Amino acid sequence: MSRFVLALTLSALTLGLAACGEKPQTLAGHQISGSAPAWQGPTTAFTVSGWKVGDERSWAAHMQARAQGQNEYVRLGTNH
Amino acid sequence: MARMKFICDAERCIECNGCVTACKAENDVPWGVNRRRVVTLNDGVPGEKSISVACMHCSDAPCMAVCPVDCFYRTDDGVVLHDKDVCIGCGYCSYACPFGAPQFPSNGTFGLRGKMDKCTFCAGGPEANGSQAEFEKYGRNRLSEGKLPLCAEVCSTKALLGGDGDVVADIFRSRVVVRNKGSEVWGWGTAYGKPAGGATAKPAKPEGTK
What is the mean pLDDT of residues B65-72? Predict the structure, then answer.
C-alpha cells in the first residue's frame, strides 16, 4: 500500500512539475548567414567594368585600384 | 583583401554635407534617419574642424556584443551589417555605439520606433546582392557592383576616404607626410606610421623641373 502511495505521489509530482518546465530561449543555432560575398556580383546594369564578376582576386584588385583613385597625389601625378 | 574602413581627414573636410546627401539619396534612407552626419568642433571659431561620421565598421563592434537578438554579422570584407528581420528595435546598439551610428526611424502617429538603420558601407544586407528586397531594406549594394561607398567617392575634397583599410591608411599617411602636419598627434605613429604597401605618395619633383 505504501509503495502504491509513494508511486502515486511521485507520479503526481512529476506531472505537476512538468508545467514548471521552460522552453529554451537561447539563440543556439541562430546564425545570420548574410548574402553572397560582394565579388560574386551579380552582373547588373550598374556593375562597373574592369573586373570579372565571380573572381575574388579580380574584384579585390579592382577595389584596390578604385580606392587609389581617391589619392590625387597618384591620380594627378603631383605632391601639391 | 584587408578590412573595409572609412577615414575622414579633418584638415580637408569643409562641412559641405555632400556625403550626407549622397548617402541619403543613394540608399533611399527613411525619413528621420541620417546614416552619415558631419560633426563640427569649435563651430564658428577660427580653426574649426569638421569630420564626417557614420558606422566605423569596428573590428570588435560593441553593437554586436550587446544586441539581445544577435542580429549583427560581419562580412568577409570586415563590414558590420545587420538583419532587419531579426532586429527588434530595442535601441541597445545605439547606447553601445561610441559614434552614434545606429539610427531609428520615428515616424507614425505615436512616434513609434522602428527597426535600426545604419551605414552598410554600401554593402546591402542578408538578402541576395542587388535584389529589390535588399534595396528596400538596406539601400544599394555598391560593393557587389565593383564600387566604393558613394559618400567617399562623391567627396569633393577627398576628405572622406573609404575602401581597403591598408590603402586608405596609406593615402592618409602620404598626405600627412607631404603637408608635414599631423604626425605630431599622439598615437599617429601607431596608427599610420608604417606604410602597408597600399599607396605611396609620388616623390616630390625638384624645383624648376616640369
Answer: 94
Residue that wins the pLDDT comparison between B34 and B189: B34
CB contact under 8 A, A44 and B152: no
Structural domain for B143, as ranges: 4-154
Contact B66, B97 (CB under 8 A): no
Which chain B residues touch A66 with a CB distance below 8 Å? 146-148, 163
**Which residues in chain B have their CB less than 8 angstroms from residue A30's CB?**
70
Average pLDDT of the residues in A11-19: 79
Nearest CA to B127 out of B69, B84, B163, B88 is that of B84
Tell me the β-bridge partners of B49: B41
Structural domain includes residue B33: yes
Please tell me if residue A80 touches chain B, with a CB cutoff of 8 Å. Answer: yes
Tell me if B60 is assigned to some domain.
yes
Residue A42 preceded by cis peptide, ω within 30: yes
Peptide bond into B30 cis (omega under 30): no
Which of B150, B151, B170 is closest to B51 using CA atoms? B151
User: How many domains would you assign to chain B?
Assistant: 1
DSSP state, A51? Answer: S
B77 or A35, higher pLDDT? B77
Across the interface, whether the CB atoms of A37 and B76 are under 8 A apart is answered yes
Instruction: Report yes or no on B197 lying in a domain.
Output: no
Residue B21: CB partners within 8 Å, gap ≥ 6? none
Give residue-wise pLDDT tens across range A45-75: 999 999 999 999 999 999 999 999 999 888 8
pTM of the model: 0.82
Flag whether pLDDT at B141 surpasses 60. Answer: yes
